[in-house]
Design goal:
By secondary structure, the chain is α+β, with helices and mostly antiparallel strands. Helices cover about 25% and strands about 25% of the residues. The strands form 4 sheets. Strands 1, 10, 11 and 12 form a 4-stranded antiparallel beta sheet that branches. The protein has a 3-stranded antiparallel beta sheet with strand order 2-3-4, with no helix packed on it. A 3-stranded mixed beta sheet has the order 5-8-9, covered by helices on one side.
């Protein structure tokens, strides 16, 4: 498990292909039906029936499923955030790539990496595809999006939200890869006044910020250090609490660690700067 962190740059299960033959000589007309919405295929289409069949399984909503348990633990750690876990897996190329600053030649856009329904629609490859959608929804009062919010009263303008969802990538199946997996996204917007209220950063909060992990224009180094320090403390606390709960039985028996070292590694992402990946030492392995 690695967590990607950074400062942001400003139904029922149903997924089937339907076919209709016009006549013996006419070309076959096909529509792709994902959770009740139909999409017209084209030269970009590469999502197979076996992958489409995995949409709408809603593992996050099965109370006894480990994914659902973990989702609930994280949601509970952020009671002042709106919570989303029912957004459609189908997004546009604008949502998944353009709005996040992905270059036109980025490998993630390739048909070898991503499941396309057509040239404009695809199965999301990350929960980040919903960032601008949710930030904009509150300002435009887009009820088709806002209706999915849980705990909405805590952040009525979507100024703070979490998104949990399944994501899809054309990975070869092996011990650590599968074409469907789950992510959780967290976004928290801060005004200048909010930043001024944050605790100052300390030597223990130091994170790598420099030419390879730069401060954005319009952000002061002091503000970035305060926001990064607050984010680091928040995420460290969340991971420690969750792993502590997860290992409660072993710890009670005296066979489990009670501390979980964390390291922050500078990273690059086109939609956050500066950026880091967070890893935690768990049972002798960095996750």
């Amino acid at each position: 498990m690695s967590l990607v962190l950074g400062l942001r740059r400003i139904a029922s299960r149903q997924a089937v292909w339907t076919c209709r033959r016009m006549n013996s000589t006419a070309a076959e007309t096909r529509e792709i039906d994902v959770l009740g919405t139909k999409y017209t295929p084209d030269a970009w289409t590469n999502a197979t029936p076996s992958i489409l069949d995995k949409t709408g399984r809603n593992l996050l909503h099965h109370e006894s499923h480990p994914l659902s348990i973990l989702k609930t633990l994280i949601f509970n750690e952020f009671p002042n955030f709106a919570h989303y876990d029912t957004l459609s897996p189908v997004v546009t190329t604008q949502q998944n790539f353009d709005s996040l600053g992905f270059a036109e030649d980025h490998p993630g856009r390739a048909r070898t990496d991503t499941y396309y329904l057509n040239a404009r629609h695809l199965l999301r490859t990350h929960t980040s595809a919903h960032q601008l959608q949710l930030l904009a929804a509150a300002h435009t009062n887009d009820q088709s999006v806002l209706v999915h919010a849980k705990n909405a009263q805590a952040a009525p303008n979507n100024e703070r939200f979490l998104v949990a969802a399944d994501v899809f990538r054309r990975d070869e199946i092996d011990a650590s890869h599968y074409p469907v997996f789950h992510q959780m996204e967290g976004v928290c917007t801060l005004s200048r006044a909010d930043v001024q209220q944050l605790a100052p950063s300390t030597p223990d909060d130091v994170v790598d910020i420099g030419p390879k992990n730069p401060v954005q224009p319009g952000h002061t180094a002091e503000d970035v250090h305060k926001v990064a320090a607050d984010m680091k403390r928040t995420m460290n606390r969340m991971v420690t609490r969750i792993l502590t709960q997860a290992t409660a039985a072993q710890r009670h028996a005296g066979s489990e660690a009670t501390e979980f070292p964390v390291r922050w590694i500078p990273a690059y992402f086109p939609f956050t700067s500066p950026s880091w990946e967070m890893e935690v030492l768990f049972r002798g392995e960095w996750l």
